[in-house]
Amino acid sequence: MVAWKRQLILFGGFHESTRDYIYYNDVYAFNLDTFTWSRLSPSGAGPTPRSGCQMSVTPQGSIVIYGGYSKQRVKKDVDRGTQHSDMFLLQPEDGREGRWVWTRINPAGAMPTPRSGFSVAVTPNHQTLLFGGVCDEEEEESLEGDFLNDLHFYDATRNRWFAGRLKGPKSEKKKRRRGKKAELEGADKQEHGRAGAQEPLEVVREVVTEDGTVVTIKQTLAAPGSAGQPRSDEEDSPDEAGGPVVEPSPRSNAMLAVKHGRLYLYGGMFEAGDRQVTLSDLYCLDLHKMQEWTALVEMDPGAQEWLEETDSEEDSDEDEGTEGGDEDEDSGESSGEAGGECGACAGEGWQETHGRAAPEAAAPRQT
Predict the structure, then answer these.
(1) CA neighbor of 224 nearest in space, from 235, 213, 215
(2) Regarding predicted confidence, which is higher, 21 or 187?
């Protein structure tokens, strides 16, 4: 939903019950003066039914719809998800009040890879910002998600996508003195910096659950300077370039807000095996400088509470007998899988929260 003049424009979505589901591509308007809903009937070929799409208003007064997620049943108890990557423009018709028209557009530039669960915000220069998400690799009886943490910008004026690349932190070292010796040292350091920049940086994080299970998260990051942007000898030293990169880890469904040219990013979720992990960290990025992320609040894995689920009452009874009944576990009547969930991802509503669903035959997540 977006605010357009004195109206709220709502598009698509889905409804799901324990037995069936339906996706929508209808458009409604809520009048902020009369407090009434009305259904719009735009002309032209519009988006197919979907949920979780990008929706933003352009400086020209049109509404952009990008991406989204939908699924369809391929056979009994087996669903196939689709991550949409098409883009549409919803425009009011000239001289015809209340009449709208759909137009499919094909932007230039570096478009985001297909994904769902991405987050959207609007920058001070009226560009649409897209962050992260997850690309699902679905087999008939399995679902694996490749979680992302990249930035993309859509410029509606130029109808073009741009990849968001950070410049890296500025060095506060004093300018090196001039001279043959200093030049040689600078050249030597620059060569070492280039060599170091070619080596990817692997960050390994471990989350220890209450039952002692260790979830290892590995993330390979490009070292500063590997994005094709040359660095002068006055910028980061090799020691600085080889340090850990501060940035949000790959995730979907993060919260975004922009204030005074700064992007704030909070939380989200990712999956580690059959566990769903909700995040509580908070980051900030200056959109004017585009240098580096700042971690305002880091996540404390020890403060997380793991909520276990089992497939049947028998499994629950066995677990209680083995563990001495110290922990309460949900029965299979209300659980969808034998994995675990963390914080807000527990229990019902997984599909409504994250906008995508596993094949039911593989790992049903039912309300």
Answers:
(1) 235
(2) 21
DSSP 23-44: EEEEEEEEETTTTEEEEE--BS
In which order are the strands placed within the sheet that holds 21-31?
A: 2-4, 7-16, 21-31, 36-40
- Rounded Cα gap, residues 272 and 111, in angstroms: 27
Residue reference for tokens 């019902």: 348
Q: Are 276 and 339 in contact (CB under 8 A)?
A: yes
N- to C-terminal Cα distance for the chain? Answer: 24
pLDDT tens profile 293-302: 999 999 876 6
CA distances from 62 to 44, 66, 302 (A): 15, 13, 46
Give the mean pLDDT of 205-221. 58
- Residues 193, 216: Cα–Cα separation, whole Å: 30
| pLDDT at residue 365, rounded to an integer | 35
Tokens 């501060």 map to which residue?
246
- pLDDT score recorded for residue 304: 67
Element at 79 (helix H, strand E):
strand 78-92
Instruction: From residue 322, give the alpha-carbon distance in Å to each of 46, 149, 212, 318, 325.
Output: 56, 40, 15, 6, 8
Q: What DSSP character marks residue 252? A: B
36's CB contacts (< 8 A; 6+ apart) are: 30
How many residues are listed for the chain in this entry?
A: 367
The C-alpha atoms of residue 142 and residue 138 are separated, in whole angstroms, by 6
Cα–Cα dist 27/320, whole Å: 50
- Smallest CA-to-CA distance from 309 within 299, 300, 319, 301 is with 319
Neighbours of 70 (CB within 10 A): 25
- The number of C-alpha atoms within 13 Å of 1 and in the hemisphere containing its C-beta is 6
Which of 109, 354, 331, 126 is CA-nearest to residue 253? Answer: 354
Q: Could you give the 3-state DSSP secondary structure of residue 138?
A: strand
